[in-house]
């Protein structure tokens, strides 16, 4: 199948289990990043549409509704059905994802497999969110119960459209919330397709709503809405600040934020160098470098630095860039013109500031938004490419001498999303893992993200956690119930 064979089935808003035209009738284009041409126009949600979607979600969450009357185990079964339907349609969904996003079809298939795993994990724990009894003083019997927070607004990015949808929907629905999801305006198509599968799976009306639109309009309307009880956002730290501000200005809604990163990958001189080169390569070049936890600062110990740079350059040189629908392609285009220009601008800045360009640095082809796999050596901490999130296929290789030195330098950033170390020394691994300021630390691997383990950031990389039991707790309130006990048996009998 080629990009021209992908049929677009859904382009309207999904509200209350129906595909509907936006109130204003506005449409916006979604672009194929492989050629810069319009794929199709999609209905654009504005504030009025957000109001309609939130009202539907609020009605679905109302006490006594079909959704609220479902047992937790029944919610799990619905999530399992949705996972099965996504798996059934993986061929179509992967092609649609690659058309809209530009990632290779193989990457899309992998992402969708991870999304299926995520839905299945939360299907399994939907009925396992337990309160506890508390040995209270003053003759009280006290206990806690966990209850769904309510109507949730969710805003996801363009780099992993279906996977980020799964990360947001699965824990929220397992907890018993209802959701209004705004997909990224650059990649709205697969969210609408999965919404249709949610209806097919049997989710009641209003439980799942999808409202494509622009961040400053639809996203802001969600963040400011007084009937939204929680907002969950994945994206840039800049926009995360705006989400926090809107939550405070409105109803002090609950917040979870998964934001940017400038994550270090540390290569010790005792590492197997070929293995280390491959780990570091995949850490930055996976998904075209468009990954919030990408290993975008490669720190290499001085004793192996020159050899590492040589091998890293050779590996980048072999990386095939091209048509996402070609099975031999390893890297497709950047998501769009803005991102493409930013990557090229930062590459140019790296050259001007004195980093040594080993390979790459230019555009590939004459159409679409393709960037050569790029490797810089002789990078120093004060350079722009060592501080700013490039979000592209650009490896920056820095030199260090000691473990203590590299820990201090790794932590010298406003971010704290992830970190990695490659070493054969368990003491190095343990010291680094405990000292580095990052929400995820990977030893002799990178980006090892699984549904069972929490994912999130320190510092300006976010608030709260995705995945694992911790993510489900983000969608639950804790209620404490205390009951006065009788002081003696005779009093109990009177009552």
From TrEMBL:
The active site is at residue 258. Residues 20-481 form the Aldehyde dehydrogenase domain. The keyword tRNA processing does not apply. One of its GO terms (molecular function) is oxidoreductase activity, acting on the aldehyde or oxo group of donors, NAD or NADP as acceptor. Pfam families: Aldedh. The keyword Transmembrane does not apply. Belongs to the aldehyde dehydrogenase family. This is Aldehyde dehydrogenase family. It comes from Popillia japonica.
């Amino acid at each position: 199948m080629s990009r021209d064979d992908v049929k677009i089935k859904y382009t309207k808003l999904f509200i209350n289990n129906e595909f509907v035209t936006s109130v204003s009738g506005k449409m916006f284009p979604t672009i194929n990043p492989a050629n810069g041409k319009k794929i199709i126009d999609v209905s654009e949600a504005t504030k009025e549409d957000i109001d309609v979607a939130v009202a539907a979600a609020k009605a679905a969450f109302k006490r006594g509704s079909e959704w609220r009357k479902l047992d937790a185990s029944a919610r799990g079964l619905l999530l399992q059905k949705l996972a099965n339907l996504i798996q059934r349609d993986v061929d179509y969904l992967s092609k649609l994802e690659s058309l809209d996003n530009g990632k290779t079809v193989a990457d899309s298939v992998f992402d969708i497999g991870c999304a299926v795993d995520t839905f299945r994990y939360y299907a399994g724990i939907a009925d396992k969110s337990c309160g506890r009894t508390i040995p209270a003083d003053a003759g009280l019997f006290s206990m806690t119960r966990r209850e769904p927070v309510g109507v949730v607004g969710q805003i996801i990015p363009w780099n992993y459209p279906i996977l980020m949808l799964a990360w947001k929907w699965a824990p929220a629905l397992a907890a018993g919330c209802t959701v209004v999801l705004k997909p990224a305006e650059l990649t709205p198509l697969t969210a609408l397709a999965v919404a249709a599968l949610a209806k097919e799976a049997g989710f009641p009306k209003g439980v799942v709503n999808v409202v494509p639109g622009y961040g400053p309009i639809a996203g802001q309307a969600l963040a400011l809405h007084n009937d939204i009880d929680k907002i969950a956002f994945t994206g840039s730290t800049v926009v995360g600040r705006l989400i926090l501000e809107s939550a405070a200005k409105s109803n002090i809604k609950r917040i979870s934020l998964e934001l940017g990163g400038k994550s270090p990958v540390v290569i010790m001189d005792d590492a197997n160098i070929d293995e280390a080169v491959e780990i570091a390569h995949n850490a930055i070049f996976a998904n075209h470098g468009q990954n919030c936890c990408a290993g975008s600062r490669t720190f290499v110990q001085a004793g192996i630095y020159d050899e590492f740079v040589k091998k890293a350059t050779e590996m980048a040189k072999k990386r095939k860039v091209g048509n996402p629908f070609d099975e031999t392609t390893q890297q497709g285009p950047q998501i769009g013109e803005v991102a493409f220009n930013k990557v090229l601008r930062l590459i140019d800045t790296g050259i001007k500031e004195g980093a040594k360009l080993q390979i790459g640095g230019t555009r590939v082809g004459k159409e679409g938004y393709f960037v050569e796999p790029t490797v810089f050596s002789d990078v120093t901490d004060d350079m722009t490419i060592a501080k700013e999130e490039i979000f592209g296929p650009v490896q920056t290789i820095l030199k260090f001498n000691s473990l203590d030195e590299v820990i201090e330098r790794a932590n010298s950033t406003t971010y704290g999303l992830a970190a990695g170390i490659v070493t054969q020394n368990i003491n190095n691994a343990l010291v680094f893992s405990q000292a580095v300021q990052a929400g995820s630390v990977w030893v002799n691997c990178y980006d090892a993200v699984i549904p069972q383990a929490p994912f999130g950031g320190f510092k300006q990389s976010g608030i709260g956690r995705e995945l694992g039991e911790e993510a489900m707790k983000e969608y639950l309130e804790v209620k404490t119930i205390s009951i006065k006990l009788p002081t003696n048996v005779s009093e109990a009998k009177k009552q």
